[in-house]
Amino acid sequence: MAFNQFIQSLDLSNNEALKVRTLLESQVTDSLEQVATSSTGQNVALATSTAKIVFRENIGWIGSESENYIATCETNCQSAPRIITTLKVPFAIRSGGHNPNRGWASAGENAILIDMNRICDVVLSQDKKTVEIGPGNRWQKVRVDPWGRVPSFSSEYGLACDNVRAFEVVLSDSSIVNASRTENPDLFWAFKGGGFNFGIVTKFTYWTVPIDKIWFAARIYEPSANGQILKAIEEWQKAAENESRGSIIHHIGHRRTLLGWIYSSPVEFPPLFEMFYDIPYESWFVESTIGTILDFTKSTSNRVLGTPQKLRREAFGMTTRPSADFYTLAYDRWRQVTDELYGQTGCDMGMVVQPLTTSAMKIGRENGGNALNTAVEPQQWMSYLAQWVNEDDDERVRKAVFELRDYLRENAAQMGILLPFVFMNNATFAQDPLTGYGAQHIARMKEVSRKYDAEQVFQTLQGDGFLLRKV
């Protein structure tokens, strides 16, 4: 590509264009194509120098010793792919940066990190039926779900991805397209579960949920209550098949367990959760409240079990049909492993049973479908997250976590309850959640990838993640 063509594609002021030209002429002796075949370090150096001019330091350029960031905003989000694809620079994309897998939302010193934090507008439509949300937002501001998992009312409205009306996407050729049921519907389908395989989402348009007052409460339990809680969860899953207004929040920690209930009508202690009410508890985490979803968010978002630290993390997820016997088996093995790890390394590993109903799975198919290919039956998305401090303990902890994962999957398979789907947000780098979508869905996603990313930039230059190139 000639200098002129590249500079014009960046849509710069005359002064900025002159600076980029001067930079290129000082560092490039032949052509941009030659630079693209040079060492990665040279590519990144030129890309970062160009980005400092294009994004202007007072708007979004951030440098660090370990990573090179381009903090994008809505007015320049197209320029980042142009720089990356022209100079063939490895890159990663970060929105919230919550994924615990190393390299999924970080880039290192020889790559570019596209940080979406500055795209954080929230714009409610005039009729209040939809809301436009930037990818840099946080749960408390948006209130899609304060726990960062599936929505609180999935049995009534489906998964978060099923409530997207449209995606605004920057493709690898820097064009901006919309994806919805009527516009680029194949891309719309693929983005609902397909991850960073197709482009950079710069705006989500969600359908709003027409709910005002709800009921919510949460309690803290000692470990001795876990057996009763796990049996009650299976009982609740049966009841929830016929009553769509409620969901539970569940997290077992090494020392305490959190159990919460959310009900989409202003009814205190509804019968749907009656199997939990008499289980002995230690204290209230959130007392019984009838309020708005915002009240719920405020009551939970700033409270944690334990002290936040800079920790090392390893996670994994799996999906099974409901089974109290399996929940108990999983808990007993988890308790054995986590007690040993805690004594040896101080590692604290959490266990979560996250139930979903048949209704939640059906809604996705009714709303244009999604790439997930989840079974249309009651299920639970089990997740584990280990957190520890010392790097010296990495091998010991990861070995124990992966052995636990394999043990649970083997036993679930023997019991006939293991399902292939793995929720991507719960998965470890050592898992392959895309494979669980099934061969037909993988083939369809690859077709979408080739159509909208002809040069396969998101497969060849993107550093790591759950990418189609691995399947």
TrEMBL record:
<comment type="similarity">
    <text>Belongs to the oxygen-dependent FAD-linked oxidoreductase family.</text>
</comment>
<keyword id="KW-0560">Oxidoreductase</keyword>
<dbReference type="GO" id="GO:0050660">
    <property type="term" value="F:flavin adenine dinucleotide binding"/>
</dbReference>
<dbReference type="Pfam" id="PF01565">
    <property type="entry name" value="FAD_binding_4"/>
</dbReference>
<dbReference type="InterPro" id="IPR036318">
    <property type="entry name" value="FAD-bd_PCMH-like_sf"/>
</dbReference>
<keyword id="KW-0274">FAD</keyword>
<dbReference type="GO" id="GO:0016491">
    <property type="term" value="F:oxidoreductase activity"/>
</dbReference>
<dbReference type="InterPro" id="IPR050416">
    <property type="entry name" value="FAD-linked_Oxidoreductase"/>
</dbReference>
<keyword id="KW-0285">Flavoprotein</keyword>
<dbReference type="InterPro" id="IPR006094">
    <property type="entry name" value="Oxid_FAD_bind_N"/>
</dbReference>
<dbReference type="InterPro" id="IPR016169">
    <property type="entry name" value="FAD-bd_PCMH_sub2"/>
</dbReference>
<protein>
    <recommendedName>
        <fullName>FAD linked oxidase N-terminal domain-containing protein</fullName>
    </recommendedName>
</protein>
<feature type="domain" description="FAD linked oxidase N-terminal">
    <location>
        <begin position="74"/>
        <end position="142"/>
    </location>
</feature>
